[in-house]
C-alpha cells in the first residue's frame, strides 16, 4: 500500500499539536495543577492505548491520544516556563537588588540599554534569595565602561517600575513583547542610584565572545570608516544592526531585502558553503569525512555563539546540525522532518520562541523554499549558467515571499512590490560583502592588504545602500499602511493552501477552500470598510511632552500637532501610525498649533487647545487640551468640564492643577493613555 505524505514526516505530526498547544497557552490560562493533572491522566491513557489498541482498525485511537497529549504538553510547558518562582523579585519585599549586566550596552536615543539578571536582594540590611530579569536604561552621562557585561550593580527598589502597556490604540505592545522574554520591569540608572560591586560575575566564555565582537567592530571601524557602512558590515557578520541609520533600515525593509541584515539561514548557508570549500581536500569517505563534518558542525555552532544565539541563527544552525548528523550516520531524512526536528528542539528549550517574529518568518521562509521552489524552478529552463543562477535566485525569492507575505502584512503592514528585482541585485552583492568581511578579518594583521580590501568593501557597501535607496525610490516600489488582523492572516494562509492543493493536485477540496476563503476575506474587508466609513470620534494621543490630536469622520481626518513636532509626524509615528492604518484614513490634513488658542466645535461638544498667549475673555468649552503649563489667570478664564494634560505636567504640578480647576476633571495622558471621544449615534 502506498504511504501518504504524512507517513514520511512523523516529526511534523508531533510538532503541529505541540506548537498549537503552546500557541493556545499564550492566550488562555488554566490553573497549573489542572493542566499537570490533565497531562498525567493523558499520559496514562496513552500508555493503556499502546497496549490495548494495536489492531490496524483501532490505531487511530492511540494516534488521537498522542496528539491530545502533545497539545496539553504544549500548554503545560508554556505555563510552567512563564510562571514566576516564589523567590522572583516581584513576589518578595526588598530594599535593593543585586543585578548582573547580562549583555553589552546598546546605544539608544536617550540612554544606553541592556538586560539585567537579578542575583539577589537585600531587606533591612540582610541578604535574601531573589531572581528575575529586568530591562536596564543607563544615563548616557555615566561612564559606559562601568556597566560592561559581567558587572554586578546594586539598585534601589524605588527606581524599579513595571513596564508600561501601550498608551495609544493599536500601538505596538512593547510590554507583551518583553513578557515573552520574561521581562516585566525596568529601571533607569542615574548618577548616585547604582552601586557597582567589585569583581567580574559573568561567564568567562561569553565575555570572550563579546570581546571578540568588540574586536570585529574596532577592526571594521578602522578599515571601513563611516558608521553606516560599519553598521551594515556588523549586521551581515553577526546581526548587530544598532549602528545602521533608520533611513537605511527602512529602505531595506521597503525593498524586501531586510532579511540580509538579520543573520539567518542564508548567512549560515554561506558559512557552511565556505567551510565545505575549505575542507574539500579532506577525503569524502570513511572516518576523515565524518571528522570533517563534525568540525564543520562545531564551526557553525561557534558562529551562532558569536551571533548571540538569535532565533533565526539557532534555527539554521540546528537544522544544518541535523543534516550533518544525518550525513555522519549516513541516513536520509525528509527536509520537512529536519525542519520540524529543529523547531521541536528549539521550542522545547524555549517555548516563547513561537511568538518571535524572526522565528516565524525564518521557518515559514524555509518551508516555502523547500516546498514551492522546486515547483517554481520547473517553470523555466535557462540554458546559460548566468540564466540558471538568476532564475534560481528568482525562484527562491518567489517561494519565500509567497508563504511569508501574510505574516509580513500582519507585523510590518507593507508589501515590497520590487522584491524580485531587489533580491536579484542585493543577495549577490551582500554575499560578496560577507565573504569580503571574513577575508578582511583574517587579513587584519596585514595592513596593506586589509587597507585595500577595506576600501573595496566600503565602496561595495555604499553602492549596495545606494542601490537599495534607488529601488525604494521607484514609483510603487512598495505598498505601505496595509493593516490586517490575525484572523485575516490565517485566512490568507488557508487561501494559499487551497490554491496549492487545486493547482498542484487538482483536488476539488482546494477549489472549494479557495472559493470559501475568498468570500470570507471579501466579507471581512467589506465589514471593515463599513466600520471605517461609520467612525466618528476625536482622539488625543499620549506622546510624551508633545501634543497630538485627531478628529476622525469616516476615512477623513484633521490632525493637530504642536510646533515642536516635525509636520511629517516622524517624531510621533511610532505611537500613531498603526492607528491611522487600522482606521483606513486617507492622507492626513495637518494643522500646527501656535501660541494662539484653537477652538473646535462638533455639534454640542467643543474642544480648546490652550496657547501660550493670555486669553482676553473667558473661554467656554467641553474639553481643554493643555499643550503646556498654564498661567493661573488663564486657568481662571477657562470654563470646561475636563482638562486633558500631557507629560509636561509633573506630579506636583498636576496635583496643584487638580486643586485649581476643581470640580472639573483632569485626565492624565501619561498614566491613563490616549483620550477618546465617540460621537453619539
Architecture blueprint of SSEs:
Blueprint: H1 10-27, H2 32-52, H3 59-81, E1 96-101, E2 106-107, E3 112-123, E4 126-128, E5 133-138, E6 152-156, E7 160-162, H4 174-179, E8 185-189, E9 195-197, H5 204-224, H6 227-238, H7 246-254, H8 265-278, H9 286-306, H10 311-328, H11 335-349, H12 357-377, H13 385-412, E10 414-416, H14 419-442, H15 447-473, E11 478-480, H16 486-505, H17 508-534, E12 536-541, E13 548-553, E14 556-562, H18 573-582, E15 589-593, E16 598-602, E17 605-609, E18 619-620, E19 623-626, H19 632-636, E20 638-639, E21 642-645, H20 651-661, E22 665-668, H21 669-672, E23 675-678
Parallel strand pairs: 5-8, 14-15, 17-19, 18-20, 19-21, 21-22
Antiparallel strand pairs: 1-3, 1-6, 2-3, 3-4, 3-5, 6-9, 7-8, 10-11, 12-13, 12-23, 13-14, 16-17
Amino acid at each position: 500500500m502506498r504511504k501518504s505524505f504524512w507517513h514520511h514526516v512523523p516529526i511534523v505530526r508531533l510538532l503541529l499539536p505541540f506548537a498549537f498547544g503552546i500557541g493556545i497557552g499564550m492566550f488562555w490560562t488554566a490553573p497549573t495543577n489542572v493542566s499537570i493533572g490533565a497531562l498525567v491522566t493523558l499520559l496514562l491513557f496513552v500508555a493503556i492505548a499502546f497496549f490495548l489498541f494495536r489492531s490496524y482498525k483501532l490505531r487511530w485511537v492511540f494516534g488521537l491520544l498522542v496528539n491530545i497529549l502533545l497539545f496539553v504538553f504544549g500548554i503545560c510547558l508554556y505555563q510552567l516556563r512563564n510562571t514566576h518562582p516564589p523567590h522572583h523579585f516581584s513576589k518578595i519585599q526588598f530594599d535593593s537588588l543585586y543585578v548582573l549586566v547580562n549583555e553589552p550596552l546598546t546605544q539608544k536615543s536617550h540612554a544606553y540599554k541592556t538586560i539585567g539578571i537579578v542575583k539577589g536582594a537585600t531587606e533591612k540590611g540582610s541578604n535574601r534569595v531573589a531572581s528575575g530579569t529586568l530591562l536596564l536604561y543607563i544615563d548616557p552621562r555615566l561612564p559606559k565602561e562601568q556597566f560592561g557585561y559581567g558587572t554586578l550593580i546594586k539598585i534601589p527598589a524605588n527606581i524599579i517600575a513595571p513596564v508600561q502597556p501601550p498608551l495609544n490604540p493599536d500601538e505596538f505592545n512593547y510590554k507583551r513583547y518583553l513578557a515573552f522574554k520574561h521581562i516585566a520591569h525596568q529601571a533607569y540608572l542615574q548618577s548616585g542610584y547604582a552601586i557597582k560591586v567589585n569583581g567580574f560575575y559573568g561567564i568567562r566564555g561569553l565575555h570572550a565572545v563579546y570581546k571578540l565582537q568588540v574586536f570585529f567592530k574596532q577592526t571594521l571601524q578602522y578599515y571601513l570608516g563611516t558608521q553606516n557602512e560599519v553598521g551594515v558590515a556588523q549586521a551581515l557578520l553577526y546581526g548587530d544592526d544598532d549602528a545602521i541609520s533608520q533611513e537605511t533600515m527602512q529602505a531595506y525593509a521597503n525593498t524586501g531585502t531586510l532579511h540580509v541584515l538579520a543573520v539567518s539561514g542564508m548567512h549560515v548557508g554561506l558559512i557552511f558553503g565556505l567551510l565545505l570549500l575549505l575542507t574539500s581536500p579532506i577525503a569524502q569517505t570513511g572516518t576523515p569525512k565524518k571528522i570533517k563534518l563534525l568540525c564543520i558542525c562545531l564551526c557553525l555552532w561557534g558562529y551562532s555563539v558569536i551571533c548571540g544565539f538569535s532565533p533565526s541563527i539557532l534555527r539554521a544552525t540546528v537544522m544544518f546540525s541535523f543534516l550533518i548528523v544525518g550525513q555522519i550516520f549516513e541516513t536520509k531524512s525528509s527536509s520537512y522532518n529536519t525542519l520540524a526536528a529543529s523547531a521541536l528542539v528549539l521550542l522545547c528549550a524555549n517555548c516563547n520562541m513561537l511568538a518571535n517574529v524572526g522565528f516565524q518568518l525564518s521557518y515559514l521562509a524555509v518551508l516555502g523554499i523547500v516546498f514551492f521552489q522546486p515547483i517554481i524552478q520547473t517553470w523555466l529552463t535557462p540554458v546559460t549558467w548566468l540564466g540558471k543562477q538568476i532564475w534560481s535566485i528568482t525562484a527562491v525569492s518567489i517561494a519565500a515571499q509567497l508563504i511569508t507575505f501574510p505574516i509580513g502584512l500582519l507585523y510590518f503592514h507593507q508589501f515590497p512590490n520590487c522584491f524580485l528585482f531587489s533580491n536579484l541585485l542585493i543577495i549577490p552583492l551582500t554575499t560578496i560583502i560577507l565573504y569580503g568581511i571574513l577575508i578582511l578579518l583574517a587579513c587584519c594583521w596585514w595592513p596593506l592588504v586589509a587597507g585595500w580590501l577595506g576600501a573595496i568593501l566600503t565602496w561595495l557597501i555604499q553602492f549596495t545602500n545606494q542601490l537599495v535607496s534607488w529601488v525604494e525610490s521607484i514609483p510603487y516600489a512598495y505598498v505601505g499602511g496595509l493593516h490586517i488582523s490575525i484572523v485575516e492572516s490565517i485566512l490568507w494562509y488557508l487561501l494559499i493552501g487551497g490554491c496549492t492543493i487545486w493547482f498542484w493536485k487538482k483536488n476539488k477540496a482546494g477549489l472549494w477552500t479557495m472559493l470559501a476563503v475568498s468570500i470570507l476575506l471579501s466579507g471581512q474587508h467589506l465589514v471593515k470598510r463599513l466600520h471605517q466609513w461609520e467612525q466618528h470620534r476625536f482622539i488625543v494621543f499620549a506622546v510624551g511632552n508633545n501634543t497630538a490630536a485627531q478628529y476622525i469622520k469616516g476615512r477623513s481626518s484633521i490632525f493637530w500637532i504642536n510646533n515642536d513636532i516635525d509636520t511629517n509626524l516622524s517624531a510621533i509615528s511610532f505611537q500613531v501610525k498603526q492607528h491611522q492604518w487600522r482606521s483606513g484614513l486617507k492622507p492626513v490634513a495637518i494643522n500646527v498649533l501656535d501660541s494662539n488658542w484653537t477652538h473646535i466645535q462638533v455639534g454640542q461638544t467643543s474642544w480648546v487647545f490652550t496657547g501660550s498667549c493670555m486669553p482676553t475673555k473667558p473661554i467656554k468649552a467641553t474639553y481643554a487640551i493643555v499643550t503646556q503649563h498654564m498661567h493661573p489667570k488663564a486657568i481662571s478664564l477657562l470654563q470646561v468640564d475636563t482638562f486633558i494634560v500631557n507629560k509636561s505636567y509633573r506630579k506636583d504640578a498636576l496635583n496643584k492643577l487638580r486643586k485649581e480647576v476643581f470640580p472639573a476633571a483632569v485626565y492624565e495622558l501619561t498614566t491613563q493613555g490616549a483620550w477618546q471621544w465617540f460621537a453619539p449615534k
